[in-house]
Predict the structure.
Amino acid sequence: MNLREYETTFIVVPNLSDEETNSEIENYRELVEKEGGKEIEIEIMGKRKLAYEIKKHDEGFYTILRYKTGGKTELVSELERRMKTDENILRFLTLRLDLELKKPRKIEERWRKKREKLESMRKQEEEKRGEDEE
Amino acid sequence: MKMRRSFSTTRRNFPIRKRYCRFCAEKIAYIDYKNPELLSKYVTEIGKILPGRVTGTCGYHQKMLTKAIKRARIMGLLPFVVKK
């Protein structure tokens, strides 16, 4: 069965210690795992300056959580519900990555094929030229 | 009328160069919102999204760019508006 790919980026408040921030992230990773998420990946973007103040903070700790899940979507709604009520989370955004990347992947494939075609044509031409010189 | 005149002067000052879609040229198939350095080139100083006819971005990429900028704004990566 096809798995759905999701990407949730969230911002943790900047005034937590490193351990607290880590445990916050670990909490969400565990939640995803418990609810049946697979191939969980965590990417930490780190502390960044916010473009505008959010809840009186001008900095935020960005973390990206990527995971795959089967047919049921309770995982995403549960994750978002928890983040909504969590005071240590400034913002979050979930994308359905597989849908998001469907067209770009197709286009990349098209570009790749075109490039291969061009390269093989060039190679043929070079071979031809080499034969002529001989 | 006044608007139009100022437009023509800027045109005279900057010779018209051939515009092209940078994303097509660099073979970028997907524009991610988590890259504010790239996105900020496509907004004005105030924070408005530049139209494709100014930047030369093609329709496919302009649409994606717009979405990415809006997402970046929500996530605090780009400003909604820069107040002076």
Notes: The radius of gyration of chain B is 14 Å. The longest helix of chain B spans residues 59-74. The CA atoms of residues 3 and 9 of chain B lie 10 Å apart. Helices of chain B lie at 2-13, 22-25, 36-39, 52-55, 59-74.
